[in-house]
């Protein structure tokens, strides 16, 4: 599109405490286009966006903006304690004749506006009471409604459900039709190819490609992001996950009749050493709750958990001692301690084991941390870097390292690849595979069916907190899983 | 189903946070009225309101500070300093007596605000330093407290503290007007929204374009100024700049704000709640005085228990 640019960036470099986040980046956004910004985690996408919006000042280079920019940042950036409507209109509230905020009108306007985004919650309730997806939609509505010429979306769909993703893509289309230029950051290829005109690829802080998206084959795009040749990727992509796990080996984890009202109603799961068992099911089918019940983080109304045949007492500490570790779904609230260093975050769970009489051996710590940083290929400037400064994929690896250094026998992984890009995702998946091959028993929870089908040796399908089916070998197909879910739905309909 | 449970839980939290102190106040008043014949007398009630008005003025500023996620430990000392400055200034007429404490205390608040907003020093530390500073300054200008400045009984300034309308002292009206204004500012202006956003999620607030530094500076300046005003009013009422008052008053102010339902961690709170918190504490003090045989230190014991209950409830209900 040969129109004049609304944003033009030339030769921008930005360094954080020794980490070069952007080096000599060029980027041009034309009026009215939808521009995909892609790259592996840590490639510098979010940093580039913060340079564009003026939150970061570049060390060198030029940034030219022409028009108002409105941004939806990667993590929901609203105020949870304030009402939905207050968040939506913060800084541009409707006024009464006396110059005071007109609350009635603000609430009415907010309700009307948000219904267009499929949100029907009470706009006067605190934003924090909404689901994460809904919050993201409020952030979207806020960004879109500010009469901007440019709207930037940094991984807006990472916390959305499929239905909400559709709403979001509709909004993008409408914005596009009204002539607003959009920068769209996502690692979901489907979305990119559906809505974007052009693409810029960042790799290790450099802009390595810029051009029309449609002419670019997907595999080519991935290879640009990863910096590896297409052949290599194709070869890697065919690595088989599934291996035979002999039914005669003793299960290391046996959960029988797990019940924790209201979400878990009599679930049985067994995992053998070296096996990856996937938990499939719709959102809200009790997958996370099942994992939490196994590790003792949820009170049980019934059922037992056995590790290598021995019952485990019902608390997280005992479960950890028995060799169960869990990587929680929400790394921001349930795992990462942003202000501590990478080293401190990694050794946190292993401290009891690393200390003697309460004194913690620093050299032991350093050795373990170095091992994991190398082994999991965690990108850090030093082990003392604050975790908050890492990209999502690297934060996830830090968490994984934390649990691995407790030397677990059973690893419960809840959405381990959520919100991280394709490159890091492939790495984490490969890592899971590798760990299983070393004899770890893995329970894998994922909303992405393909990830489960690729990664798991066996699938337990949940519906309404109960097992709707178990699939193995040749049954590990999309159809079988959907059937397992659907069959239950039909039974349900019959019984009413 | 989980939706409705979280909704009702949220509603319950809201009611208890908003109305918990109000319910306690109504019960306290009703019981005291029945048990202590003197409690309900107009004189006693007027006195109660007057005593409460000084604390209310300080707590109003504290409400804003706490909603931004901060704390102001200097208000007790600043309050005492304000009183001394007013008494000293009264030699030079009404305006000096009123404005001198407002300006000096406002400046102390401004410095608090600047330090907190521009450096990343914790409000706790900064205002602890100004607590010491203000108390020290007070001791310097009063010869280590040996010199108590008196205010001429017939001066206009004394009228400000002792004058009445229908028996209700002027400070009551001043506090009432300020609290109404404070409520409007908090809920109906951009500044008020910025106060909530600052305390609710500082990083998000930055990205939403909230001027963090400005908001904090204003809030601490207001807190200092209001503490100075409360000191000046107290001096006018007592007809002298008493040097030993205000010790630990910052803790009373924090307590009433929190009892009134403002979250100590910031982001949520109301001026009305604070006013109710002030009333509650003052009624408890009044009743303990009426019992007579009880040591007045029980005031602190009872306030402490109340505060603990409220904080524990906030914690439990927010699960
Ligand atoms: N505020 C910061 N301080 C230090 N390092 C940072 C900061 N923000 C980003 N980085 C580093 O810059 C690099 C690029 O990060 P980011 O722009 O978030 O990547 P992306 O959004 O593409 O995943 C990463 O290595 C990250 O650790
Ligand atoms: Mg990012």
UniProtKB/TrEMBL annotation, chain A:
SMART domains xrefs: AAA
Organism lineage: Bacteria, Bacillati, Actinomycetota, Actinomycetes, Pseudonocardiales
Organism domain of life: Bacteria
Every ABC transporter domain range: 7-229, 247-489
Species of provenance: Lentzea xinjiangensis
Record-given protein name: Ribose transport system ATP-binding protein
GO MF: ATP binding; ATP hydrolysis activity
Keywords: ATP-binding, Nucleotide-binding, Repeat, Transport
InterPro entries referenced in this protein's UniProt entry, alphabetically: AAA+_ATPase, ABC_carbohydrate_import_ATPase, ABC_transporter-like_ATP-bd, ABC_transporter-like_CS, P-loop_NTPase
Transport among keywords: yes
Listed Pfam families: ABC_tran (PF00005)
From TrEMBL, chain B:
Membrane-related topology note: Multi-pass membrane protein
Domain of life: Bacteria
InterPro entries xrefs: ABC_transp_permease (IPR001851)
Principal location: membrane
Alphabetized UniProt keyword annotations: Cell membrane, Membrane, Transmembrane, Transmembrane helix
Localization of this protein: Cell membrane
One term under GO cellular component: plasma membrane
CDD domains recorded: TM_PBP1_transp_AraH_like (cd06579)
Pfam families per UniProt: BPD_transp_2 (PF02653)
Transmembrane segments: 20-36, 48-71, 91-115, 122-141, 168-186, 217-238
Coiled-coil positions: none
Protein name (Swiss-Prot/TrEMBL): Monosaccharide ABC transporter membrane protein, CUT2 family
């Amino acid at each position: 599109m040969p129109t004049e640019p609304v944003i033009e960036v030339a030769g921008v470099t930005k360094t954080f405490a020794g980490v070069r986040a952007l080096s000599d980046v060029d980027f041009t956004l034309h009026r009215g286009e939808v521009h995909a910004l892609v790259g592996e985690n840590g490639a510098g996408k979010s940093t580039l966006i913060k340079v564009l919006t003026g939150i970061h000042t570049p060390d060198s280079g030029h940034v030219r903006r022409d028009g108002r920019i409105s941004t939806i940042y990667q993590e929901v950036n609203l105020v949870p304690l304030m009402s939905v409507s207050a968040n939506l209109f913060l800084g541009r509230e409707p006024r009464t004749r006396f110059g005071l905020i007109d609350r009635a009108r603000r609430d009415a306007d907010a309700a009307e506006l948000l219904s267009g985004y499929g949100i029907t919650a009470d706009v006067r309730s605190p934003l924090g009471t909404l689901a994460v997806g809904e919050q993201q939609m409020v952030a979207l509505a806020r960004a879109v409604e500010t009469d901007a010429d440019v709207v930037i979306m940094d991984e807006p769909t990472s916390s959305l459900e499929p239905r909400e993703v559709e709403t979001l893509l509709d909004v993008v289309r409408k914005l596009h039709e009204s002539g607003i230029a959009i920068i769209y950051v996502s690692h979901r290829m489907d979305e990119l190819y559906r809505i974007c005109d052009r693409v810029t690829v960042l790799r290790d802080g450099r802009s390595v490609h810029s051009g029309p998206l449609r002419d670019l084959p997907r595999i080519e795009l991935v290879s640009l992001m990863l910096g590896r040749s297409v052949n290599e990727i194709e070869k890697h992509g065919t690595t088989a996950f599934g291996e035979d796990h002999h039914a005669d080996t003793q299960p290391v984890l046996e959960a029988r009749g797990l019940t924790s009202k209201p979400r878990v109603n009599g679930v049985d799961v067994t995992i053998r050493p070296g096996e990856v068992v996937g938990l499939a099911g719709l959102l809200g089918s009790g997958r996370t709750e099942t994992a939490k019940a196994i590790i003792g983080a949820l009170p049980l109304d019934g059922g037992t958990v056995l590790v290598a045949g021995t019952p485990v007492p019902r608390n997280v500490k005992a479960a950890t001692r028995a060799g169960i570790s869990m990587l929680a779904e929400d790394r921001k609230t349930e795992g990462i301690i942003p202000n501590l260093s990478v080293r401190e975050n990694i050794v946190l769970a292993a401290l009891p084991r690393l200390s003697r009489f309460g004194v913690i051996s620093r050299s032991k710590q350093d050795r373990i941390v170095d091992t994991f940083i190398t082994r999991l290929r965690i990108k850090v400037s030093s082990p003392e870097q604050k975790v908050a400064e890492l990209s999502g994929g690297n934060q996830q690896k830090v968490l994984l390292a934390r649990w691995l250094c407790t030397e677990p026998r059973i690893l419960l992984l809840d959405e381990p690849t959520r919100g991280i890009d394709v490159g890091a995702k492939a790495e984490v998946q490969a890592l899971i595979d590798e760990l299983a091959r070393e004899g770890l028993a893995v329970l894998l929870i994922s909303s992405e069916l393909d990830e489960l089908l690729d990664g798991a040796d066996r699938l337990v399908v949940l519906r309404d907190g109960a097992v709707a089916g178990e699939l193995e070998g040749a049954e590990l197909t999309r159809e079988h899983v959907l059937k397992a879910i659907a069959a239950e739905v039909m039974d349900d309909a019959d019984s009413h | 189903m989980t939706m409705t449970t979280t909704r009702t839980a949220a509603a319950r939290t809201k009611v208890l946070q908003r109305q918990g102190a109000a319910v306690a106040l109504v019960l306290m008043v009703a019981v005291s009225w029945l048990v202590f014949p003197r409690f309900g007398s107009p004189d006693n009630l007027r006195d109660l309101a007057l005593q409460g008005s000084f604390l209310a003025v300080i707590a109003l500023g504290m409400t804003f500070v706490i909603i931004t996620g901060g704390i102001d430990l200097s208000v007790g000392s600043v309050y005492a300093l304000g009183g001394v400055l007013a008494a000293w200034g009264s030699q030079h007429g009404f305006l000096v007596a009123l404005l001198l404490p407002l300006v000096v205390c406002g400046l102390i608040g401004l410095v608090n605000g600047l330090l907190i907003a521009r450096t990343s020093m914790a409000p706790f530390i900064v205002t602890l330093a100004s607590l010491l500073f203000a108390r020290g300054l007070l001791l310097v200008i009063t010869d280590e407290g040996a010199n108590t400045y008196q205010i001429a009984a017939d001066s206009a300034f004394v009228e400000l503290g002792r004058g009445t309308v229908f028996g209700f002292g002027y400070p009551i009206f001043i506090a009432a007007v300020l609290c109404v204004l404070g409520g409007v500012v908090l809920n109906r202006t951009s500044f008020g929204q910025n106060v909530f956003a600052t305390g609710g999620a500082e990083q998000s607030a930055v990205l939403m374009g909230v001027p963090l530094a400005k908001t904090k500076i204003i809030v601490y300046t207001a807190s200092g100024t209001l503490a100075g005003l409360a000191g000046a009013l107290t001096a006018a009422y007592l007809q002298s700049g008493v040097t030993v008052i205000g010790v630990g008053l910052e803790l009373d102010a924090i307590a009433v704000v929190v009892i009134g339902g403002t979250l100590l961690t910031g982001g949520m709170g109301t001026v009305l709640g604070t006013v109710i918190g002030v009333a509650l504490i003052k009624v408890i003090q009044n009743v303990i005085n009426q019992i007579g045989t009880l040591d007045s230190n029980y005031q602190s014991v009872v306030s402490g228990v109340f505060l603990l209950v409220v904080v524990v409830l906030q914690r439990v209900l927010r699960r």
